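Handout, section 3.2

Students often ask what a structure token actually looks like in practice. Rather than define it abstractly, here is a full record for Cytochrome b-c1 complex subunit 6, mitochondrial. The first block is the sequence as you would receive it.
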Amino acid sequence: MGIFDYVSDLYEALTVREAEAEEPQKDQGGDEESEEKEEKSDDGEAEGGDEEGGDDAEEEEEEEEEEEEEPEDIKPKLEEECLQTKQCAPLKHHYDECAERVKHQTEQHGKADEDCVEEFFHMMHCATACAAPKLFRQLR
């Protein structure tokens, strides 16, 4: 390992590079050519578009069937029911009061002195803890 390798490794370790979740898209620079190709393909579809029209309709029908087969999420409904129980009702009441205070502060002063994040988390923790056993029983 020579001095050049040492310096290059040190440089790579100390520099900050942009982290990308996906491979960056490369611009081919041929925007004008691609537009011309699109126009030509549009003309071709107008002449022979009857053959491919059936495929699009079939794909749309398949997508609709897939959407219909998706089951309804019952978790929000269970959480709403749990918020009405005596265990979670005081937390919901406390959150609602806080939300009203914040709303009035925003209307009067333009900004609120507090937020209701903590109250919201307590309320949702109670609701999810109550709904979880019911949800898992129904999913079995």
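Discussion prompt for tutorial groups: The domain at 75-139 is CATH 1.10.287.20 (Helix Hairpins). How would you have guessed this from the sequence alone?
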